[in-house]
Amino acid sequence: MSSDSIISIVWIYPDLLSTYGDRGNMLILARRAALRGLPVRTVEVRSDQPMPTTADIYLVGGGEDGPQALAAQRLIADGGLHRAVAQGSVVFAVCAGYQLLGGSFFAKGTQYAGLDLLDFRSDRGPTRAVGELGGPIDPRLGLPPLTGFENHGGRTHLGPSVSPLARVSTGIGNDGATEGAWRGKLLGTYSHGPALSRNPAIADLLLRWATGYDTLPPLDDTWADRLRAERMAATAAA
Ligand code: GLN
Description:
With 238 residues, the chain is α/β, with parallel strands linked by helices. Helix content is 29%, strand content 29%. A hairpin with a 2-residue loop joins strand 11 (181-183) and strand 12 (186-189). Helix 1 (23-34) packs across helix 6 (200-211). The longest helix is centred in the last third of the chain and has 16 residues, at 222-237.
């Protein structure tokens, strides 16, 4: 946590990477921290502004191909996110933002360099992956199953030094077998937009990573739990 004991959360490039209500992830983190009495500062950093290097948590949202390519170029040129990660900041990335963390990705038929923060690369799949996405999360993270909604054309191929976030039981995710990726305090998922609303336990994981606390007081997640159970039952029956 920053020296002033406030959890600082940066939402990266809301002008480029906010196609799917990605602001929700920032609101959910701030709310869940506040409910534990943890002070939070949220900062929105537009693509024409320098990236702060000392925030505790960075959020990178989803986006269409053009804004995604522009975001990658600006983040690489800026270098601030790399410095923050080297200093131990937490990163949570969704869909286009997730693809950006790897070595390369395709947008509008062209290959672009990614930030190379995680060991994977993305190419294009034969179909667009649209629909429910879910499956058991890496047991080392101690979280309930992932549920979400995906909408992407890319496929992501993990290298040996990164772990899948989850195995896929519904949907496509990375490649039909695994979904998302994590290493250290960096976590990416194809679960769409405000993914933390459907997966509040991931929000708490990010807050624990940022604060260093082993546990946080539980909150009432009845609605998220019910939605998960309903969607898992519906996709199992389909
Ligand atoms: N443009 C990327 C793709 O289609 C990411 C899309 C998204 O963020 N939903 O794969």
